[in-house]
Amino acid sequence: MSKIKVAVLGATGAVGQRFVQLLDKHPWFEVTALTGSDRTVGQIYGDACRWVLNEPMPDYVRSMRVVPTEPGLDAAITFSALPSDQAKAIEPAFARAGHGVCSNASSYRMELDVPLLIPEVNPDHTALINVQRRQRHWSGFIATNPNCTSTGFTIAFRPLHDAFGIRRAFVVSMQALSGAGYPGVASLDIVDNVIPYVSGEESKVESEPCKMLGQLNESHVVDASIKISAHTNRVTVIDGHTVCVSLEFDRPIGPREAAQAMADFKAPSIVQTLPSSPRCVIEVRSEADRPQPRKDRDAGKGMTTVVGRVREDPLFHVKFVVLSHNTIRGAAGGSILNAELLVAQGIVS
Amino acid sequence: MSKIKVAVLGATGAVGQRFVQLLDKHPWFEVTALTGSDRTVGQIYGDACRWVLNEPMPDYVRSMRVVPTEPGLDAAITFSALPSDQAKAIEPAFARAGHGVCSNASSYRMELDVPLLIPEVNPDHTALINVQRRQRHWSGFIATNPNCTSTGFTIAFRPLHDAFGIRRAFVVSMQALSGAGYPGVASLDIVDNVIPYVSGEESKVESEPCKMLGQLNESHVVDASIKISAHTNRVTVIDGHTVCVSLEFDRPIGPREAAQAMADFKAPSIVQTLPSSPRCVIEVRSEADRPQPRKDRDAGKGMTTVVGRVREDPLFHVKFVVLSHNTIRGAAGGSILNAELLVAQGIVS
Amino acid sequence: MSKIKVAVLGATGAVGQRFVQLLDKHPWFEVTALTGSDRTVGQIYGDACRWVLNEPMPDYVRSMRVVPTEPGLDAAITFSALPSDQAKAIEPAFARAGHGVCSNASSYRMELDVPLLIPEVNPDHTALINVQRRQRHWSGFIATNPNCTSTGFTIAFRPLHDAFGIRRAFVVSMQALSGAGYPGVASLDIVDNVIPYVSGEESKVESEPCKMLGQLNESHVVDASIKISAHTNRVTVIDGHTVCVSLEFDRPIGPREAAQAMADFKAPSIVQTLPSSPRCVIEVRSEADRPQPRKDRDAGKGMTTVVGRVREDPLFHVKFVVLSHNTIRGAAGGSILNAELLVAQGIVS
Amino acid sequence: MSKIKVAVLGATGAVGQRFVQLLDKHPWFEVTALTGSDRTVGQIYGDACRWVLNEPMPDYVRSMRVVPTEPGLDAAITFSALPSDQAKAIEPAFARAGHGVCSNASSYRMELDVPLLIPEVNPDHTALINVQRRQRHWSGFIATNPNCTSTGFTIAFRPLHDAFGIRRAFVVSMQALSGAGYPGVASLDIVDNVIPYVSGEESKVESEPCKMLGQLNESHVVDASIKISAHTNRVTVIDGHTVCVSLEFDRPIGPREAAQAMADFKAPSIVQTLPSSPRCVIEVRSEADRPQPRKDRDAGKGMTTVVGRVREDPLFHVKFVVLSHNTIRGAAGGSILNAELLVAQGIVS
């Protein structure tokens, strides 16, 4: 079987690099184009890109030439690592031109006819693509993955919401530096320090999960009626977002039931066979002091959500800690898994 | 006027060193004794102590000889920097022998007849000392300061509770390394990492503020009926605990009113004149990204509580961030301020 | 006595801020102007400047309006915190217009008629100012301070070179983040990492000390014939450059003699009375593991050079470690001390 | 072919864990015993060991029971991760009892009849084992790997010394935290700091390379006549020692020739086929700012030595930077590679 051709839009940035790295030797996808800004167009990727990942730059991209971010690429799927202001204008142009856009940008996440997608959480929401195509007269489409901080705890919420109904949630993040891109956070701002603020983050974290946990209803999603309050913070960690969560359910639930529900959670069977799908969706740890970003972010090659410290909450019902790799599961890896789902569902071929 | 003689119990540890440093050139107190463990007794302090503070060791202690931690020292006040297991047995012996014990240990904080004290919050709770002396037949006494994480947000809660009545509070800490003492947290555990766990911390943080904000009632304190849920975390910061807070009041209160109440807060006049009293009790900052530990921990020489990001909370009423220096305001400095209050109230002389 | 009026050129950058902070309440100088780039001109400093120091912004500058970096300011001395490419063109214009320029920029350090100055090292080199004025027909002048890495070890070299004659020196630096300005080093580049490279640094470190330790000879300085090899590295430290040094002398010298010479070193008497002059020029420590940047950078308010681990070198004669505060002694503080010297010498009034 | 049985002595410590991790699924070796201290003996490894590596504990060890560190284990090879004071007494007992001891401890490295071994550097030095057995009447033996800091640059020195003759070397290290074991360096000592001292390190770094680069001569090694001066420092890096090197050769050599010699270096063919042998022994990078520990330590699964910044030295001939993974190539991985060599040479079977 020949591979599906894909492109990476904004391939020289930090998230773009993660796409490039994760698509190396991908069993289904073949990267045919890397796009960049005016500054880099025409250069070979190995020269154009200041590589920031620890993993070395894959050989396959070194001598690929960076092309402009314009529709017409030889690619059924285009992975968008564009900044949201650029994504706003560019992604619809690609969808109109027939490309499937799997986007990490926030620009279209909350549009009614755009799926905001985590395969283990809401694989049926891809049905919005039909609505989107009808309404917008696009031959391609846009499908999005959520914000890196929303991702981890929304996965943890899925089995809990199904079993017990979540009413209210407090979430407080301690986010990694890679979430801010490159150069991102200045070292003078964060060494021996915490920045208790991540621009634009709290409103995303308070809204995106409700869409993903909502019910698909003909032409749109009816948001789950969960109220979320978020505090988002930046800490001195390279990769891996840690989130403290307190949950109130429809009825009193104890930590044991909650932990069991998360540990038992299985992805829908169509998702389990996807190449980037982790064997274990949620790993529930029993140690007093886990999860920790440096030690747990690479679980399931960065695609497993790690939960720990599940315990009673004196105000609500249960509290715990969630850890998720922000540039793999929470960005490029999540977007690639979405594309795989769309292929498995026959939406892209 | 001659100075009051004081001793530091457990003077070679990290908190003990902070007492030693803050008592250098104190206008009211004169350090007459430093106590240590068997290992250090008999040595001069300069040799016995592995000094961990950035500020250099004060000259006055270098050649003082470390003595055993036993009652009978020439000191009206003994500042206890003992570990709580040792404090349990030793502090009552000192109180029985007539010493006033101002303790940073947790052992007696929640005893009904022991004041848990922040001068700006509950200076009247020192009346428990009379109860304590009657009940225990002590000529001395024990007065305690709260846990370093409780300290900062309890100060912020005082004006809010008085004005609006706090019902429920979520508090999530990002705590400094110095809170774990020395050697404390191994560097291999915390570089490029977060530890979402601080042993024994959450139960203290959920209970101590209620005692401090409670009403004195003849022989004991009736706890404030505030329900608190705490998540406590360790981050890569030398000094300064950052706490994210969400508050529910008796009635709907907006961020503006809450910020105003905190900014307007004044210490009782007897407290304002104490030598270690900061000019500004609570500094409310308006920047989007403050307070930050490295930049704000030294406000008011480490005695000011810095609050920022006061904003609406989607679940409760108001959320904000509190920053407090954990080894100054939250430990040695807080304990010294307590001693100064006791002197000003005539309880010690 | 009325104060001498001074201006800070490039006042909103990281070094500019350090000038502003150190000039607060200066006994001799009064800041009359702060200059900035087109982006900031016209704004008040409190708004124009993203303040990066831990010390709060001094009140005196908050509402000063940023002016263009053009000659004609009401200032006898202008402290230049300009980037070297801008300094190249701007500083001569100021000197020509009659301003004394005390510059932290590298642009003119190695010009034959420009003094490269550390008051304790070569106060007589200010005589070059006369040469400079004659040759360039300037009523003002340019005087420079060395690179932040050169500064510390050149001070340590002064008494050693005088007493024993230094022939060859290996110097390997571990430099602080603040040396790169703001935003400077990206956190993603330096957390859990070392960058064994500082752009342009090694050539400065290998040449500047020879000029400063050289002999003034009519119209120029004859460089000291010391050969230096430098490796410069960036490490995860906020402030304070640590330098490992190995020295070969004209004759075999042991660590004891070297340590003694450094400890005994006194500034010339004209320098000792300058307001920014540290009481102790070189502090020689005897512990096995000092100096350390976090613990020693603030010695002498950041103006003292701290030396430790003076020991025998198997290849050359002696090796040791030097620590110096890079933005105080190695930049703004050094430049201010130079200006004070020029005032004391009657060159500026 | 059945696997060779091996044991890990001191298996619960930081280096012991690295042995356990690297021996997981080893093609030649099978771990039959893990030894520990009195505290851990009798417990299963999963409980006895506070696992500090990022990689998860391998399944094969979880339920193995920790046994005392005493000869008589069912193991042809015992890997010693013992502290050097314990190794001093225990390793000879194992060798006497017929075990081959591949030791990471420093106790016997400099003994005349004990090979100090890096397979790519001095594979012929294993001939000392015969001398050792004859002289000590041991049926087993002790073979050692060098100090973690010596390892990397000694590998880089091999081709240079062969081609050009090294006379003198300055080496300045910036060492990772994991080199100090666990708990090792306190976070309060190293965050925002450098410790310019590693206990006992400099004398090892100045002597071990000369033995390894020496000539085997009947019964012992004649040290290479290279003079080395070392400065060793601790920095805030988890893994990976960075070393700045300046070299003087027998004749003037330029950076290009030196870089070429290192890049061309091949391991002896017997070494190339060993399971832990990296494909590339020395990787020479051309970027201005590499190698860097976080980005280069995992080259060749932590077994490749990465060199960069090869340039002219103003005092000697050439200077460069060497990076080596200290707990893999510089400890457990190096020791395992030694054992593989001994098997390939037929010394162990």
Number of domains as seen in the coordinates of chain A: 2
Radius of gyration of chain A: 19 Å
What best-fitting shape of chain A do the alpha-carbon axes yield? Answer: globular
Summed up, the helix count of chain A is 12
CATH class of the largest domain in chain A: Alpha Beta
**Low-confidence parts of chain A lasting 5 or more residues at pLDDT below 50?**
none
**Cα distance, first to last residue of chain A?**
11 Å
Summarize the structure.
Chain A is of the alpha/beta class. Chain A has 12 helices and 14 strands.
What does this structure look like?
4 copies of one chain form a homotetramer. Chain A is α/β, with parallel strands linked by helices and 349 residues long. The first copy, chain A, folds into 2 domains: 4-147 and 332-344, NAD(P)-binding Rossmann-like Domain (Rossmann fold, 3-Layer(aba) Sandwich), CATH 3.40.50; 150-325, Dihydrodipicolinate Reductase, domain 2. Chain A is 31% helix and 23% strand. Chain A has helices at 14-22, 45-48, 59-62, 84-96, 128-136, 148-164, 187-190, 201-212, 255-264, 269-272, 293-296, 328-344, and strands spanning 4-9, 29-36, 67-68, 77-80, 100-103, 141-144, 166-175, 215-217, 220-222, 227-234, 241-249, 282-284, 305-312, 318-324. In chain A, the strands form 3 sheets. A 6-stranded parallel sheet of chain A has the order 3-2-1-4-5-6, sandwiched between helices. In chain A, helix 4 links the parallel strand 4 and strand 5. In chain A, helix 6 packs parallel to helix 8 and helix 6 crosses helix 9. The radius of gyration of chain A is 19 Å and the shape is globular. The N and C termini of chain A lie close together (11 Å). Chains in contact: A-B, A-C, A-D, B-C, B-D, C-D.
